[in-house]
Amino acid sequence: MKLNRRTVQTTLALSLMAGFFATPALAADKPKVALVMKSLANEFFRTMEDGAKAHAKTNAAKYSLVSNGIKNETDTAAQIRMIEQMMAQKVDAIVIAPADSKALVPVLKTAIDAGILVVNIDNQLDAAAQKEKGIQIPFAGPDNRAGAKLVGDFLGKGLKAGDKVGIIEGVSTTFNAQQRTLGYQDAMKAVGATVVGVQSGNWEIDKGNTVASGMLREHPDLKGLLVGNDNMALGAVAAVKAAGKEGQVKVVGYDNIGAVKPMLADGRMLATADQFGAKQAVFGIEIALKALAEKKKQADMPAAIQTDVVLVTKASK
Questions:
Q1: How confident is the model over 230-275, as pLDDT tens digits?
Q2: Is residue 11 over pLDDT 60?
Q3: pLDDT band at 316, cuts 50/70/90?
Q4: The domain 30-141+278-306 is classified under which CATH number: 3.40.640.10, 3.20.20.80, 3.10.20.30, 3.40.50.2300?
Q5: Percent of all residues in the chain with a pLDDT value above 70, rounded to a whole number
Q6: CATH architecture group of domain 144-274
Q7: β-pairing, 310-313 with 271-274?
Q8: What is the overall mean pLDDT for the chain?
Q9: Could you read off the pLDDT of 73-99 as tens digits, one per residue?
Q10: 164-169 and 194-200 as β-strands: parallel, antiparallel, unpaired?
Q11: Looking at the predicted structure, is the pLDDT value of residue 210 above 70?
């Protein structure tokens, strides 16, 4: 067939147009993953987000990431709205660190029914609430009870039977807060220490400070404060200093955020646990991406993937 100049120009134009319109189609094939976190005022979750963003940048050809977090650790309504927004954006998967172990289950059931894969990180969703809704959401995270016991056991080495300690718990409706409290109680029971009270500090510095101050006033002979996360531990350390009890009341935490490193070094904090926050979201994202690549449905995903948690002290490297 003989091609004239007009035919060649038309063919080239059609080829260019085909290439132009093919690009969005290829982009549309790249899955979109949503990361929904708790309070970004907490350094732990900023670290988590930074880890996720670095992973997304490295794997930009494989998926796109959209992330968000609430301002207040207890604002479950805001987290529910975020999930609804992610659904409206037609994400392929949601990786969530839920603010409440039960309250988020219904909206996540709605997301699953819409064909969105859901992976749970950080704070485990309530098993009974999931069963009631007929769903199974895989959890990627550490054994919080075992991690807290590691920290409590280290504190326990400096205690004797009958010594008084207080536990400052995270948000009491969250599974990880409950498990960390149980781990601390396990450790204190092992050494015969007396737990004078368990009070919630809502995962927040100011609330942790308020609770610690109250415990120190009520129990002048307190020997230790076992705190559910490092954010609250920062408040507890400040309370110990204000009470003039530095060196007398030992404080332990959980998360190993950057802000506590100098406190571990100079003894204001005795120990914490590292659950590798920068990697937690990445674990969840990779589980979601694998399931999407294998075209798995929610029910086909694994129930749980346990991640590492280690004790961190002044002597840790």
A1: 999 999 999 999 999 999 999 999 999 999 999 999 999 999 999 9
A2: no
A3: confident
A4: 3.40.50.2300
A5: 91
A6: 3-Layer(aba) Sandwich (3.40)
A7: antiparallel
A8: 91
A9: 889 999 999 999 999 999 999 999 999
A10: parallel
A11: yes
CB 312 within 8 A of CB 264: yes
